[in-house]
Amino acid sequence: MAFLEVKNIQKSFGETKVLRGIDFTMERGEVVAIIGSSGGGKTTFLRCLNFLETPNGGTITVDGDEIFNAAVTYTDAETREKRLRFGLVFQSFNLFPQYTARENIAMPLYLRRAEALSRETGVRRLPRAQKHELQEAARAAADDLLKNVGLAEKAGLYPHQLSGGQCQRVAIARALALSPDILCFDEPTSALDPELTGEVLRVIRDLRRDGHTMIIVTHEMEFARSVADHVVFMAGGIIEEEGTPAEIFDHPTSEALRAFLHKETEF
Ligand SMILES: Nc1ncnc2c1ncn2[C@@H]1O[C@H](COP(=O)(O)OP(=O)(O)O)[C@@H](O)[C@H]1O
Ligand SMILES: [Mg+2]
After folding, report:
1. In CATH, 28-54+76-95+165-265 is 3.30.420.40
2. Which residues in the chain are classed under CATH 3.40.50.300?
3. Residues lining ligand 1, CB < 6 A?
4. Any residues with CB less than 8 A from the CB of 183 and at least 6 apart, and which?
5. pTM check: above 0.85
6. Mean pLDDT taken over the chain
7. Tens of pLDDT along 78-90?
């Protein structure tokens, strides 16, 4: 069984069928790039994996654990637990403007650990000293993560004091803080000025080197070719074609993929 198995994921918004049966597998440590024209359902697919949308049909299994089945109703606690398998880095960073870089990372980590501890111990309100200890540990972890994305010096700055590339690196560190099995990126550089994309792509390359399992939606074709083990072309709510970077970029078979690549590479 593959590390991630997605079977027949379907999602409609009202009458509009956005995902029309996505079947998808990947192995641990693999990097998959998803490409395709706007409106093809790429973001919706990542949002389904991250439990930000509830699919109308299908199943999602990670490491043998069925984390989603459209036929099953889950409690909020179950959903919170299962969603931790995935992390998502958004196109527009989604940092909290009122928190520093450090707090943006430490806060969700603290909340997560406090919740886990409450559940383990059966104590609903943690004692002050214990809260303090957890907060300090979360801040220290945040500083380590910031160092890993080259932002040790910026821990105390607010998002408005950081460049777009720096904000996105904070967002990546925040997603990593919860140790997801699979890290997803939704066009991580498309909101950035061209001169800032390099620093973000470099961080993603480092994550690949460290063995992270990643799904990257991107319109940077050269990046997709060089970073991905496997490339998926989505169009009209289905996977139209998939293969190695060489197969997809050098030997596209479907007319839709050929047309897409032609459009992407012209000026
Ligand atoms: N919350 C929503 N309500 C209604 N339609 C939506 C919603 N989210 C996405 N869609 C529609 O689903 C289609 C696919 O969107 P999306 O997943 O964002 O594609 P992509 O990321 O490939 O551009 C689009 O036609 C979009 O308008
Ligand atoms: Mg999108």
Report:
1. no
2. 28-54+76-95+165-265
3. 13, 16, 18, 36, 38-44
4. 86, 87, 88, 89, 175, 176, 207, 212, 213, 214, 215
5. yes
6. 95
7. 888 889 999 999 9
